[in-house]
Amino acid sequence: MKELILEMENYAKEKSVPIIEKDSIAYIMRYIKANNVRNILEIGSAIGYSAILMASSSKEVKVTTIERDETRYMECLKNVKKCGLDKEINVVFQDALDVNLTGVTYDLIFIDAAKGQYKKFFEKFQYFLAPGGVIITDNLKFHGYVGKKETIDSKNLRGIVDKIEGYIDFLKNNEEFDTEFIDIGDGISISRRKNENK
Ligand code: SAH
Ligand code: MG
């Protein structure tokens, strides 16, 4: 298992797959254990790195993870099998915005896909949060670019940073959710429904 994780880290580096930073996944794994998280929904599997680590944080954990890129989806499936976690991790090959969920709720929803669509993901998946559940979002610093738009030459990149800044404002001004911003890894946020005693 440890070896597989290392292999995945190397693969990600070689192929420039943006897997989560170690501090951030360690934080999420601690959260999972401390809060008895059972059901997790992940938006953006890539090669399965974060899904595998989340699923392995405790025996009871089940992860549904969504990926729209076929190569990454296949790689993810392969890695999940290699880890012997096929019963715990359900990999869905689809665009998350097209996925139809019914009758399920999640204790943790991890948003880690296209940065420009964060708000759409939040707005769609908030209805699938179990009581006391949280929505965690990754890459809110976007490699240090957030808050430093004037230093970016690429118009595309500036557009993404704009969207992330918009998402941060959306979270800060959200009437239904309280959000804590945590300065670890590439920056994560953790959002909870207001008026829940947890
Ligand atoms: N969570 C992974 C990293 C995910 S990288 C980890 O830390 O190990 C982001 C992934 O989201 C990419 O593989 C990309 O193909 C996928 N993605 C982007 N937009 C998506 C969408 N709308 N639906 C599903 N997957 C998406
Ligand atoms: Mg990420």
How are the SSEs placed, and which strands pair?
Blueprint: H1 2-15, H2 22-34, E1 39-43, H3 49-55, E2 62-67, H4 70-82, E3 89-93, E4 106-111, H5 118-125, E5 129-137, H6 155-172, E6 177-182, E7 188-193
Parallel strand pairs: 1-2, 1-4, 2-3, 4-5
Antiparallel strand pairs: 5-7, 6-7
The structure holds S-adenosyl-L-homocysteine and magnesium ion.
Magnesium ion (MG) binds next to loops.
Polypeptide structure, described:
The chain has helices at 2-15, 22-34, 49-55, 70-82, 118-125, 155-172, and strands at 39-43, 62-67, 89-93, 106-111, 129-137, 177-182, 188-193. By secondary structure, the protein is an alpha/beta fold. It has a single domain (2-193), classed as Rossmann fold. The chain has a seven-stranded mixed sheet, with helices on both faces. Strand 4 (106-111), helix 5 (118-125) and strand 5 (129-137) form a beta-alpha-beta unit. The model has no long low-confidence stretch (mean pLDDT 95). The site of S-adenosyl-L-homocysteine has 19 residues, from helix 3 and strand 2.
Could you tell me the strand content as a percent range?
15-25%
- CATH fold-level assignment: Rossmann fold
Bound molecules: S-adenosyl-L-homocysteine, magnesium ion
Distance between the termini: 33 Å
Low-pLDDT parts are: none
Major β-sheet annotation? 7 strands, mixed
CATH superfamily: Vaccinia Virus protein VP39
Shape: globular
- What count of structural domains? 1
Comma- or semicolon-separated keywords:
7 strands, binds magnesium ion, Rossmann fold, 7-stranded mixed β-sheet, alpha/beta, binds S-adenosyl-L-homocysteine, 198 residues
